[in-house]
Amino acid sequence: IKVEPLEGEPWRLALQFIPGESKTFIALNRGKRSLPLDLTKPEAADIIRKMIPDMDVVVINARPDVPANLGIDYESLSAINPKIIYCDNTAFGRKGPDANRPGYDLIVQAMSGLMASEGKIKDGFPQQITSTAVADFATGIAIAWGVCAALFVRERTGKGQKVDTTLLGAALGVQTGSFTEVESFDGERRRDVLESLGALRDAGVPYDEVDEHYRNTLFEWRRGSIYYRTYQASDGVLAVACLSDRLRKRVADILGIDDPRFKPGFDPFDEETLDAGEILAKEVEVLFTKRTVEEWLTAFDEVGVPAGPVRYVQELLDDEQVIANDLVVNLEHSKAGPVRMVGPMISMSETPLKAQSASPALGQHTDEILSEMGLDAETIQKLKDAGVTL
Q1: What is the pLDDT of residues 309-360, one digit of tens each?
Q2: pLDDT higher than threshold 80 for residue 232
Q3: Pairs from 173-178 (Cβ < 8 Å, separation ≥ 24)
Q4: CA 137 → CA 41, 103, 119, 174, distances in Å?
Q5: What pLDDT, on the 0 to 100 scale, is given for residue 219?
Q6: How far does Cα 363 stand from its chain's mean position?
Q7: What counts of helices (H) and strands (E) characterise the chain?
Q8: pLDDT (0 to 100) of residue 223
Q9: What percent helix, strand, coil does the chain show, rounded to 5?
Q10: What pLDDT is attached to residue 262?
């Protein structure tokens, strides 16, 4: 049950193609029922309290001060149902100087290092990651993981609990190695970089120059990368991904190159090695343009080298591999009609997953949900007339 404002949640209203419906909302709200409520009205709070005894899980996505102000905080709801699993998602967490700041994916991309790490700079400014709302979706997965873990604990102990997730935590969590410091290896270097970054910013040095200094200092080992990157072929672009010398040697043999990596005494951090790698990378880029994507893939497949074509996501709705693994589902939307979208990202042998329904129209299930709670048609109509629901 999705409880949303009477006007609909914001994503309904962003880039609507018909009134109250957007592709983003449809993509994110499959399988839900819509119950619009004005939570500032006491009658709406009464409806929430009637729902809670039968609920297993509540997910809240708001600034830290909002749930308590509306009477839907963990303490209030767990007092009604002590077994409730209550997941409270915030941008930055409930502690610290940024706790009460509002935040969206873009803000967290900026503040978590994701945006800077991406290295996309245009007109001197860093650009957001636009292919996906990476902090948002990573947080969604964290919510599902946390809720399932809490449900498992409840099965063992009978106790409900509160699960806190944050956009900031998810954004840092997906950066793994970048957000790890091995003191003996990079501790001193990181401190030197931070000191120099501070000095450059204080001096008013433009961002793109600051970023170049940062990358040249911390990521010089990436220069001359050959085996984990994309290449332009004669008719398109492909990606090659080799994370072991065994695989790298197979690529080198197919390309017919002499890579010093395979000689005794190779040091990936040596300056001469890095310079030689840059020269070799340019030679390899030319070699890749001599064959088609399919020709390269055939050669790599024969020796087990991971490689694949670069595609646009819209192409994948008709992709044989995607369809074969049930990653496309067909649904009927009450207002928009037929919808094709991604299917469940996992499969389960004993409890198969199924896309049960398309996203709901605003207020589509108000009568159904309130009737299930025992309210008669006259009471439901009075609530609508009073502006409590739709």
Answers
A1: 999 999 999 999 999 999 999 999 999 999 999 999 999 999 999 999 999 9
A2: yes
A3: 173/138, 173/142, 174/114, 174/134, 174/138, 175/112, 175/113, 175/114, 175/117, 178/113, 178/117
A4: 32, 14, 21, 11
A5: 62
A6: 28
A7: 17, 12
A8: 60
A9: 50, 15, 40
A10: 84
φ and ψ of 266, to 5 deg: -65, 130
Task: For 36-75, give one letter per residue: b (16+ CB within 10 A) or e.
Answer: bbbbeeeebbebbbebbeebeebbbbeebeebeebebbbe
Give pTM, 2 decimals.
0.89
Q: Which residues contact 138 (CB under 8 A, 6 or more apart)?
A: 170, 171, 173, 174
Q: Which residues pair with 90 in a beta bridge?
A: 166
How far is C-alpha 258 from the chain's CA centre? 40
Provide mean pLDDT across the span 273-302: 93
Would you place residue 272 in the very low, low, confident or very high pLDDT band (cuts 50, 70, 90)?
Answer: confident
Residue 342 bridge partners (DSSP): 328
By DSSP bridging, strand 2-4 and strand 34-36 are parallel
**Rounded Cα gap, residues 247 and 269, in angstroms:** 21
Dist. CA 151–CA 365, nearest whole Å: 26
Type of residue found at 264: P
Q: What is the maximum alpha-carbon separation in the chain?
A: 85
